[in-house]
Design a protein that fits this description.
heterodimer, A: alpha/beta, abc type-2 transporter like fold, 2 domains, 4-stranded mixed β-sheet, two-stranded antiparallel sheet, 17 helices, 8 strands, elongated, B: alpha/beta, Rossmann fold, 6-stranded mixed β-sheet, 3-stranded antiparallel β-sheet, 8 helices, 9 strands, 36% helix, globular
Chain lengths: 445, 236
């Protein structure tokens, strides 16, 4: 078998264009898919008009200063701001399509926020010629305004709680530059209780004072609970996030697993299918199986060749990606296990395709035609299609090695669940496709 | 032919492909250094007979009664790797044949096939004739007693054909039994010691070319005309 391996490597060495295509094509596809998955849409250009005077950028709430420009900076991370000097200029830019939207901050916004008497408003002008981008802009600005609202609500709540605390416990209060002493319900209750004790036993005022003391106690006790109530009013709905299925893989890390699985699949399938079909095209198959090599050994040789080559290509690819993204090299043995499992299953599938197609071109075409839908099906997320259709997709995906190879690589690269089950799945597919390939060789010559 | 001098013998071979019978009770035998031509119209069963003798296919009935020490098989289309050079092709098959000294075997084959000067040439760049010589040389690597050639000179020009036959005759001269299937009746007439005529899977004749002419009884005709006459006479 090693002489056949050597022969195939010699043939590959003499086919530089084929090797280059075989290596470059999947990498290009993988990189494109990786980009598509990991990179969000480009930052939309948004005209930004800030009419607030530079001196009024800060809002004073409850003695605390809030810098409004902090929220603008957050917004600028999500958009590409195009600063304009007037509302008309902003409008022109939106109309001409130079920007997708304009965000106008009115000059009185900080005053309104500070007074709390009427809601502050910002104005957003859209260009909706491209609905997808318009929606993205709308959502981005809405999310940023929501963040600012939440932060300000928190600050208002804090101020309100401070006032309530002052009412309950008493203390100093400054207003328009003057300091006032606030007695507070607690002290008022104590004073009233002392006054009540000094009154004669039969005094009618005792009963009246008792009613006032009860009210003061009740008010103090209930105001103590106001912290929780105000917090709930500020953020009525809290979101608690918990992952119940699948790992917590970041999108770009998942994209790497997808890119690796795709490269592994293309290189292995094409090599295994092509080299096996080549034996028939070169008329060598009958000569080989005439006692020189068994059909099973021939299949294993092609599978081994394809698996080893694709393993090498994908390892190089991972090393290259490692220059740009943070990969955990401590998990290298798991990478190898995932890649080897995937490569062997794809190789068995490739030999089956080669045995069935019997010609290099037909085998390559068949490999491409099968591979692309398999990838797309495996990437369909649950919930995006009807449950029955999703079950059908899962069954189809399970019949081919891509989904299992992706799960294995995701587990190996990103620690998103165990790698054992995907590897077992790949092992079963290796045996099944190997048997199919062996069956195909019965009518191969 | 006496059994002691027979290197290959088959008896009553039958091969069916579904409803079609490709070979009908065909027997033959050949001795050392003998050149046996298998001729017949298209679909006569020539390739099927050779592939059974080569061990590529199993007969449905009948058997090989005398098995040679080794059978070299040279298919009609060169079974070579075009991207490899001549020497690499020979080395590969010498190793797969488990030749004890692959280097010496390859050297001997390069000499025998007169391809020493083309040893480093990629097979895809060779002429049809040279490619066929490499093809035959591979069939001879294990020094078989019997060499089976399926249409060895098909698609060769007359000059290449002549060189190829020189090579084959040299092999027969050193005792290799050569059984070849051909469409070229002149080649059968010129080189064969024994002629087997097949039609529709049936053996119609087994003897020398001269005996065939005598059986037809047409003197003055060339061999091809005599062969066509023979087939007509047998209803083909």
């Amino acid at each position: 078998m090693r002489w056949l391996l050597l022969k195939d490597l010699q043939i590959l060495r003499r086919s530089p264009l084929l090797v280059a295509l075989l290596v470059l094509y999947p990498i290009v596809i993988a990189v494109l898919i990786g980009f598509a998955l990991s990179r969000g849409p480009e930052k939309p250009r948004v005209a930004f008009l800030n009419q607030v005077p530079r001196t009024a950028n800060r809002i004073s709430l409850g003695g605390e200063q809030i810098d409004a420009s902090k929220y603008a900076n957050q917004l600028f991370k999500a958009i590409e701001p195009v600063r304009v000097s007037s509302r008309d200029e902003a409008l022109d830019k939106v109309r001409s399509g130079d920007v997708l939207a304009a965000l106008i901050i009115p000059p009185d916004i900080t005053q309104k926020l500070q007074s709390g008497l009427e809601p502050a408003k910002v104005q957003v002008l859209y260009n909706a010629e491209d609905p997808v981008k318009a929606r993205f802009v709308r959502n981005t600005i809405k999310a940023q305004v929501q963040d600012a609202n939440t932060a300000l609500t928190r600050q208002f709540t804090k101020v309100a709680l401070g006032y309530l605390d002052l009412l309950v416990t008493g203390g100093k209060f400054s207003f328009l530059g003057r300091d006032f002493d606030v007695l507070g319900l607690q002290k008022a209750e104590q004073i009233l209780a002392a006054a009540q004790r000094d009154l004669p036993r039969r005094s009618a005022l005792r009963g009246q004072l008792e009613a006032v003391i009860r009210f003061a106690r009740l008010a103090r006790e209930n105001l103590d609970l106001s912290d929780d109530v105000l917090s709930s009013v500020g953020t009525p709905i809290h979101v608690e996030q918990r992952v119940v299925k699948g790992g917590s893989t970041p999108l770009d890390a998942f994209a790497i697993a997808v890119a690796v699985a795709i490269s592994l699949m293309f290189v292995t399938l094409l090599l295994a299918a092509g080299t096996l079909a080549l034996e028939r095209e070169e008329n060598a198959f009958p000569r080989l199986v005439r006692g020189l090599v068994s059909r099973t050994a021939l299949l294993l040789e092609k599978a081994a060749l394809a698996a080893v080559c694709s393993l090498g290509v994908t390892l190089i690819m991972l090393a290259g990606l490692g220059l740009f993204v943070d990969l955990d090299w401590g998990r290298f043995p798991l990478w190898l296990a995932g890649l080897a499992g995937g490569a062997l299953a794809f190789a068995a599938m490739g030999t089956a395709l080669g045995a069935l197609a019997r010609e290099v071109r037909a085998a390559s075409l068949l490999a491409f035609m099968l591979a692309l839908p398999i990838v797309f099906l495996a990437l369909v997320p649950s919930g995006s299609v009807a449950p029955t259709l999703y079950d059908v997709i899962r069954v189809i995906s399970a019949l081919f090695p891509f989904k299992a190879a992706l799960d294995a690589m995701n587990a190996a690269l990103n620690d998103s669940g165990g790698i054992g089950v995907p590897l077992l799945h790949l092992g079963a597919l290796f045996l099944a496709f190997g048997a199919l390939g062996r069956l195909g060789l019965r009518r191969f010559a | 032919m006496e059994t002691a001098t027979v290197t290959l013998a088959a008896r009553e071979l039958v091969k069916r492909y579904g409803d079609r019978t490709a070979l009908r009770h065909v027997s033959l035998s050949a001795g050392p250094g003998e050149l046996v031509a298998v001729i017949g119209p298209n679909g006569a069963g020539k390739t099927t007979l050779l592939s059974i003798l080569a061990g590529i296919q199993q007969p449905d009935e009948g058997e090989l009664t005398v098995l040679p020490k080794g059978v070299g098989w040279v298919p009609q289309q060169a079974a070579l790797y075009g991207k490899l050079i001549v020497e690499e092709n020979l080395f590969l098959f010498a190793r797969l044949e488990r030749c004890p000294n692959p280097r010496a075997t390859v050297d001997r084959m390069l000499e025998l096939s007169d391809l020493r000067e083309r040893a480093r040439d990629q097979v895809s760049t060779l002429s049809g004739g040279n490619r066929q010589r490499v093809n035959i040389a591979i069939g001879l690597l294990a020094e078989p007693e019997v060499l089976l050639l399926d249409e060895p000179s098909a698609a060769l020009d007359p000059r290449q054909r002549a060189r190829l036959w020189e090579f084959i005759l040299r092999l027969a001269g050193v005792g290799t039994t050569v059984i070849y299937a051909t469409h070229n009746v002149q080649e059968a007439d010129r080189y064969a010691d024994q002629l087997i005529v097949l039609a529709d899977g049936e053996r119609l004749f087994d003897g020398s070319p001269r005996e065939l002419e005598q059986e037809v009884g047409t003197t003055g005709l060339d061999f091809e005309e005599a062969f066509v006459e023979f087939l007509h006479g047998r209803g083909h």
